[in-house]
């Protein structure tokens, strides 16, 4: 069967791709008053439109994908049946899939840098982490597995956004269709060994496929070379992976470790969760000197596809010429009559009729309002005057300190003050003896007891008592800091400020003076981890990264929300990595008290990645309730 140029509510612009079960078109949805939105329409192929099994799989994909709401997953907007064909309207990613990017980079000999490769895999792992942990509306885990992580299903926009697409064969507990035992679904080259054998799989199978992607991006070669699909299947089942020395000797050891761990044949030796793999990847990126972001990926893609972007942009803006396909009829695009009435012409005589009505209904001044007898205007003006009068009266009647009294207490008049010759020298001598010495070295005999302090203050002239006050204040300000520097409450209260001021070594010294039980407190562990993070960022200390994985796992599994206030303070740190980790931890905890701060970060933070992570954290908190 064929479809028209206008497909329901959508105007077809271009055919993007054809897969094994469906075809994808670039479309535009047109609404009233010039509203337009670009979308991708995925329509089931005509030869499968009567096949109940394919239709059930297609409906399952639509239902499942509609529950996914994450920046690293392609969004679903609509699902329906038009002219006997089921379709899905989804987010259009203005960019390329990873397969096209790798092919273009080979042709132009512009290899994707290692840091950009690690960043793309990190973002894909973030999307998988969200999908694997997804729950239904009742809080039950969906146990979602993608099962088809491949270069064709990883899309990267020209702005650097990484998104996972095509959950068509995803496995979930809520699906109505079940895969028969021994039936393979997915692309053989990117399958895990257990998936290639047709065994029961879990989320670790997706992580193996992600490792295959990482291997291919770093080495610029397929993970398995075979003459036939049967031979390829055997090699995939046996996990016959070669790690060329000429390549893996030149790359960082940490990167090599991540690839090899993801490609372990035994699922028990692999990464057990996408979160664990993502944390290792982020630590790898943290160890580099570059501050990697979407802008670097964007610059690379815009340079790689600079000849194609303008043509694609022209199609998006102007509509362009739609290539003729067998599935699209040759009928011309009908005009959309809904947009014609938007241009409204008002004749002169209509204006002449309406102007007197407008002038008549709206008073031009306060005087006219009173003349017209508008009661509401009169009442409003009287209320305003009353309020203004009350404010002025309150300001005049408020108690103010008398300047004459303060002058008598602080600066006595020359006639009443004693002769300036005797008291000032004694004051200067006392201050010079006490002020240079720190609080610890003051002899006990110099500390006046409370009774003598009062008698001295009473007997001294007013200028002398006035000069003693700042001296006492200095002592009181310095003594508590020394006295409470090793107390638990002091470390918790002052820790975020010390981190913000890059006084992390002072914070670590204070933490080391705490008892063993106090150091096990979650707030102390957070402060210690962030202090080590600062030490790593500023000093490149390789021994400062060991606490992060344990801290993430502790907060994610325990859900200890007592750590929320201290994390909200740290999330406002000037250093970007500190804010990034604090925002991620707030999302892991899931405390609704952090929503306001996270919303502010999501809208105002200068770093685009931190803004997106804050949005993800908000979504996680809202879904946990």
CATH architecture of the largest domain: Orthogonal Bundle
Give the distance, in angstroms, between the N- and C-terminal Cα atoms.
47 Å
Number of helices in the DSSP assignment: 27
Summing up helix and strand content along with how strands pair, one would put the structural category as alpha+beta
The top-level CATH class of the largest domain is Mainly Alpha
Say how many strands there are: 9
Classify the fold: give the CATH topology of the largest domain: Transferase(Phosphotransferase), domain 1
Strand content: 5-15%
Low-confidence stretches: 172-184, 320-364, 400-485
Describe this structure in words.
The protein is an alpha+beta fold and 625 residues long. It has five domains: 6-92, Phosphorylase Kinase, domain 1 (2-Layer Sandwich), CATH 3.30.200.20; 96-311, Transferase(Phosphotransferase), domain 1; 356-388, no CATH class; 444-483; 488-624, Leucine-rich Repeat Variant (Alpha Horseshoe). Helices cover 52% and strands 8% of the residues. It has helices spanning 52-66, 98-107, 114-132, 193-196, 203-219, 229-237, 245-248, 253-262, 274-287, 294-304, 306-318, 348-361, 366-372, 375-397, 403-410, 423-434, 450-459, 462-483, 488-500, 504-512, 516-519, 522-539, 548-558, 564-570, 576-589, 595-604, 608-624; strands at residues 6-7, 10-18, 22-30, 36-44, 76-82, 85-91, 95-97, 154-157, 162-164. The strands form two sheets. A six-stranded antiparallel beta sheet has the order 1-2-3-4-6-5, with helices on one face. Strands 7-8-9 form a three-stranded antiparallel beta sheet. Strand 5 and strand 6 form a beta hairpin. It is globular, with a radius of gyration of 35 Å. The model is unreliable at 172-184, 320-364 and 400-485 (pLDDT under 50).
């Amino acid at each position: 069967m064929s479809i028209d140029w206008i497909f329901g509510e959508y105007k077809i612009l271009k055919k993007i791709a054809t897969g094994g079960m469906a075809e994808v078109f670039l479309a535009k949805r047109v609404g009233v008053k010039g509203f337009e939105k670009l979308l991708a329409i995925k329509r089931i192929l005509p030869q499968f439109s009567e096949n109940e099994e394919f239709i059930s799989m297609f409906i399952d994909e639509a239902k499942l994908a509609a529950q996914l709401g994450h920046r690293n997953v392609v969004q679903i907007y609509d699902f329906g049946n038009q002219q006997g064909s089921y379709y899905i309207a989804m987010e259009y990613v203005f960019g390329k899939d990873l397969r096209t990017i790798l092919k273009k980079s080979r042709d132009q000999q512009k290899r994707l840098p290692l840091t950009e490769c690690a960043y793309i895999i990190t973002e894909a792992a973030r999307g998988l982490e969200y999908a694997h942990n997804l729950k239904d509306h009742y809080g039950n885990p969906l146990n979602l597995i993608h099962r088809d992580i491949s270069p064709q299903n990883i899309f990267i926009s020209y702005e650097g956004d990484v998104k996972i697409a095509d959950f068509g064969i995803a496995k979930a507990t809520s699906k109505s269709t079940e895969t028969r035992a021994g039936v393979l679904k997915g692309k053989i080259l990117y399958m895990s060994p257990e998936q290639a054998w047709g065994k029961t799989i879990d989320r670790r199978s997706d992580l193996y496929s992600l490792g295959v992607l990482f291997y291919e991006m770093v080495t610029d070669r397929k993970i398995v070379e075979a003459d036939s699909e049967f031979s390829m299947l055997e090699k995939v089942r046996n996990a016959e992976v070669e790690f060329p020395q000429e390549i893996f000797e030149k790359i960082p050891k940490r990167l090599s470790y991540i690839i090899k761990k993801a490609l372990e044949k035994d699922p028990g030796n692999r990464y057990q969760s996408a979160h664990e793999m993502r944390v290792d990847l982020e630590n790898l990126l943290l160890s580099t000197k570059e501050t990697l972001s979407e802008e670097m990926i964007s610059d690379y893609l815009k340079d790689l596809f600079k000849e194609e972007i303008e043509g694609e942009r022209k199609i998006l803006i102007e509509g362009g010429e739609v290539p003729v396909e067998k599935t699209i009829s040759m009928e011309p695009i009908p005009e959309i009559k809904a947009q014609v009435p938007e241009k409204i012409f008002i004749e002169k005589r209509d204006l002449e009729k309406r102007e007197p009505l407008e002038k008549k209904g709206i008073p031009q001044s306060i005087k006219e309002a009173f003349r017209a007898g508008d009661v509401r205007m009169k009442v409003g003006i009287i209320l305003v005057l009353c309020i203004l009068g009350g404010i002025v009266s309150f300001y005049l009647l408020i108690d103010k300190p008398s300047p004459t009294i303060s002058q008598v207490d602080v600066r006595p008049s020359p006639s009443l003050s004693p002769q300036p010759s005797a008291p000032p020298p004694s004051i200067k001598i006392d201050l010079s003896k006490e002020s240079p010495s720190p609080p610890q070295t003051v002899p006990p005999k110099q500390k006046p007891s409370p009774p003598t302090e009062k008698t001295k203050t009473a007997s001294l002239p007013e200028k002398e008592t006035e000069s003693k006050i700042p001296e006492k204040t200095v002592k009181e300000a310095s003594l508590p800091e020394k006295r409470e520097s090793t107390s638990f409450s002091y470390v918790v209260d002052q820790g975020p400020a010390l981190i913000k001021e890059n006084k992390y070594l002072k914070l670590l010294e204070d933490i080391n003076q705490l008892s063993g039980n106090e150091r096990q407190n979650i707030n102390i562990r957070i402060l210690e981890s962030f202090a080590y993070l600062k030490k790593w960022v500023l000093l490149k200390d390789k021994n400062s990264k060991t606490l992060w994985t344990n801290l993430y796992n502790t907060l994610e599994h325990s859900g200890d929300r007592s750590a929320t206030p201290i994390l909200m303070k740290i999330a406002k740190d000037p250093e970007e990595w500190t804010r990034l980790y604090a925002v991620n931890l707030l999302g892991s905890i899931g405390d609704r008290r952090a929503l306001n701060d996270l919303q502010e970060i999501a809208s105002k933070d200068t770093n685009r990645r931190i803004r997106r992570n804050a949005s993800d954290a908000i979504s996680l908190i809202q879904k946990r309730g």
